[in-house]
Fold:
Amino acid sequence: MIKKLTALALAAAAMNASAGNVLVVLSDEATLDLKAGKTFQTGFYLNELMQPVKMLLDAGHAVTFATPNGKAPTLDKGSVNPMFFGGDQAALDVHQKLLEQLRLTDSANSPVVSLARVEQQGYGKYDAVYVPGGHAPMQDLLTSPALGKVLAAFHKDGKPTALVCHGPIALLSAMPDAKGFTMKLAQGATPTQPKWIYSGYKVTVFTNDEEEASKAQLGGGEMKFYPQTALQKAGLQFSKAANWQGNMVTDRELITGQNPASAPLVGKELLARLQK
Structure:
């Protein structure tokens, strides 16, 4: 039954002649390395992935899921909470059921492909890219050469590039030396501000204030650096709304959302771009 429902959802997208094909990039990682050798169990946030994905599928668009290495992504269990769906348990249930139907987290049957496979297929088949949050992108997407290639190609063609919450940290992968830049940040040093494809872009991301307000979930651990600080030091113009309030910033092809509450805003903007 689950296979049948998944096939119907994807088939509906394929049957729409005007449908776009959106590449959704997730992390391979299930943990985030913290300071002092500590780790934090994480993954993607349910609402940040599934609210935009459901919007895309409902509108008849096709969705292709990918991670750097093609591993099934991990759901952050802490995100399975009605608070991220406006307190609506029914909405949570609908989106969780769709996730189960898509089998993304099923290591044996996940439809996820690697970014190397995406490159082989050709970036031209995709009309937009979306990167949801959760802390996992802080572990691998920010320095992924394969994702850097994707972003550079979409930037060159002016294709919609949407990221939410911790997802915008993945933009760093398009830097000339992402690993060197983030290593200096982790060491507490001030990296040289590079000139790169997103220099001067206006963005938002999960804020330093929101990180401080939610430190308890790290179980006494401490992140090596915050995404807001990283993007500002990389030369992006940062703006924010009040903590936990939905906030979206657009600049040219980039669409960024500040926090979990911003995912629906980013999804709607992405839909609007695909309809142009």
About this structure: The domain at 2-274 is CATH 3.40.50.880 (Rossmann fold). Residues 1-9, 11-17 have pLDDT under 50 and may be disordered. The chain is about 35% helix and 15% strand.
